[in-house]
Amino acid sequence: MIHSGIPELDELLRGGYQRGRVYLVQGVSGSGKTLIGQHFLEAGLENDETVVYIHGEESQRDILANSHQVGLEIGDAEFLDIGPGTDFFADDVAYDLVETSEIDAERFTEDIHAVIKETDPSRVLLDPITQLQYVERDEYQYRKRLQSFIRFLKDRDITILVTRTIRSDLNRGGTVQTDIASLSDGIISLHLDEGERRIGIQKHRGIGQRDGTHGLEIRDHGVEVFPQVIPDHSERTFEPQLNSTGHDGLDGLLEGGLEQGSITFVSGPTGIGKSTIGAQLLEGALRSEGNALGYLFEESVDQFRYRADNLGIPVSEYLEQDEFRLKEIEPLVLSAEEFTRIVLQDVAEMDANMVLIDGLSGFKISLQGDKQRLVRRLHALTRELKNKGVSVVITDENQQLTGNHNPTSENTSYLADNILFLSYIELQGELHRTIGVLKKRLGSFDRRFHRFSIVEDEGVVIESPFDDVQGILQGRPTHVTDNE
Description:
By secondary structure, the protein is of the alpha/beta class. The protein has 15 helices and 22 strands. The chain has a 9-stranded mixed β-sheet, sandwiched between helices. It has a 9-stranded mixed β-sheet with strand order 14-13-15-16-12-17-18-19-20, sandwiched between helices. A two-stranded antiparallel ribbon has the order 10-11. It is elongated and about 95 Å long. About 5% of the residues have low confidence. It is an enzyme of class 2 (transferase).
């Protein structure tokens, strides 16, 4: 196996490319095909290999300038330009006795033979393969030329990467059946949809691949790939441990607190106090000498810290210690897979035992609003954290102010071990905040709805239950005495 130059791509390929095989990298224009190939060449150069770059659309000067901008250094590669020269345009070259395609095809063949025999490379990048197709009379000749080209390189145990641009209307997971696709030992497909980049391995002959699509980003140091997380359920044995939330009122509702390694949703409409509840739960973990992480999708770290400090939750003090980190997340910049990798790396680095994800709607934005992928990615992240014994708190906004029958916004309630449900109710013209526990998978809980308020220097204050009110969940609260 030889490395692709991108460690996470090697992971998708189950070790990397097979020596002496041909791989097709296909995708729409701008999806990153050329960069994948340049990583491949740079990895060879770093391993003191001879590599050849056969190009037909960009000049060598432009290739080197563009690759340098993303931190790729391939200047020591052997370059072969098979594109038309300036004389084609300037001199209006024409051939009277034979077809232009026959002359060009013969020239291409001779040039490629010469550079391969002269340099004896271990890796070859042909960018793009369509440059060969343009000079053939018909598809039959093109296929013969292509088969001959691939056999010529394979006989010399050369690993070949070729790129191909596909139409944008085939970008949504479509499979392009072409000659080069059928001749390839592996196919890497790149997708670009509304600014979101994805990568998938369609086939890897003889070895197999990680299926599905995965995150891909182009950064100032080249291409980064973010494989989907598949939870490893073998990591953890179930050992129930009830931890206090550090808040008497919340402990009362939850009859003792939350189990370590459980997943808790704090659900409710905008402005009701979901983030404040999340901050209270973080403080409880920190007070018990645990380590905690918070990821903010909807507000800045400074705003979260200022608001919590004013409510008597000393976030600023905790941030000065090594046991707590807050990160502001921009969902339009990070894919869900990249965010997942950040979280798992932070958890491992800090040995954290609680994670707050403040703003499920922001996580959804990172998935371009795809509800099915939202559930799958959130399932993978929360299950992986749970398997590591990490407690997870997720704030989730419901659109209805009152009378909401769905405990979570995107049908993710099956993931939750615990659901704290926050809502507004109107009684006699006055608006009240209510809080209740809808679910606690591993224990009993107070089944009544309680009034609560958010008080400066005190934080969340759980008040008396609504013993004389019914119909809160339906959004039609009435005093029991009114019906008697």
